[in-house]
Design a protein that fits this description.
The protein has 150 residues and is mainly beta. It has 2 helices and 11 strands; from the N terminus they run βββββαββββββα. The protein has a 6-stranded mixed beta sheet with strand order 8-1-2-11-10-9. Strands 3-6-7-5-4 form a 5-stranded mixed beta sheet.
């Protein structure tokens, strides 16, 4: 994947929490991080699409990354956030996360590619594992997480 090459072979990731797991999202996709707000439900959409919000006059779909990954339903707390992601094909979409932890910079040497097809649905959204300060961060492949026709 040519998109993994960054300046000095480092990439910045926003580390989020979903339950007890830590995931990384490439910072180049992040447009905004919002506090939770009222999400207007939309009928007859996939269960992981929670509805829409109004962001600076623009209607933005919001999805539950937990449900999309086959995890339990979101529990909204004061730490919950909506991360606005900007994708080339899909445009902008909000994803609900339990918590935004920090921004980390990983060198290519700290990222191991995941080269297996897992039966565990949530693992299929991960393209690599980042090693950071003794911990592991599962790196999300947003092209697989975010639906094509949202």
């Amino acid at each position: 994947m040519e998109e993994l090459k960054a300046v000095n072979d480092t990439t910045q990731f926003i580390v989020i929490k979903l339950g007890e797991e830590q995931y990384g999202i490439d910072i180049k996709y992040i447009d905004n991080i919002l506090r939770m707000q009222k999400i207007t439900r939309v009928p007859k959409v996939a269960s992981y699409l929670k509805g829409v919000i109004n962001l600076r006059g623009e209607v933005l779909p919001v999805m539950s990354i937990r449900i999309k990954m086959g995890l339990e339903e979101d529990v909204v707390t004061k730490s919950s956030r909506i991360i606005v992601i900007k994708m080339e094909q899909q445009g902008m979409i909000g994803i609900i996360v339990d918590e935004v932890k920090e921004v980390v910079t990983l060198e290519m040497a700290q990222i191991e590619k995941v080269a297996y097809a897992s039966k565990d649905e949530k693992d299929n959204f991960i393209y690599g594992i980042g090693k950071y300060e003794g911990g592991l961060i599962s790196l999300l492949d947003l092209n697989l997480v975010v639906p094509e026709n949202s």
